[in-house]
Amino acid sequence: MPAPATEWFSTWFDSPYYHRLYRDRNQQEARDFIDALLRHLHPKPTARLLDLACGKGRHAIYLSEQGYDVTGVDLSPESIVYARQFAHAHLHFEVHDMRDHLPWGPFDLIFNLFTSFGYFAEEAENVVALQSAAAALRPGGKLVIDFMNTERTVAELVSHEEKTVDGTRFQLRRHLDRDFIVKEIRFTDEQGQPQLYEERVRALRREQFEEYFQMAGLRLAEILGDYQLNPYDEASSPRMIFVLKK
Asked: Does the pTM of the predicted model rise above 0.85?
């Protein structure tokens, strides 16, 4: 189903300013994380992989370079248009809403990386998204969800920040709004018009995730706490990385 225009991610992720703001994300850290996950999970060389909410495809492309058959899906048409220039016989990209049925499976391993979950206004939609992912897994397949450690993120929330990227000055404000961590992004575009976007990510705790997993028929195998795959510690870990089995 097409995303309603009222959903913040349906417009912000297609904005060139989104990609400008996050241009300097650490590519080497992302590759090292993928390498660590592949060593930890050791999928077979013939495994079919899905990058769920793949953005412009940086992780999917790297996974395909390791020899796997990879599909990347994302809600943003602009991101998928960009990613498709790297497509080949064993690397495919599709526009897709993770709440909808995934017709390209079954997959042996599904990745949902870098807090690409919890965007939906209705909590039940998170379960629907997980059910769709579970249905696309082979029996015995695994799903990896990489999310912020919400407890630590809320405790250390930076309320105001400014950064300038390629001549655009972004003013970032963060606050809690009920169950969501909200980031307001203000800037003036190249036509001199003021712009305001919001990112809203549900402040999901471990216990909420575990309820979701149970409802989606997924078994929690382990929780890792950082990109080096150390065990999760609620007080100190920067991430909650869930490894789930169907």
From this structure: yes
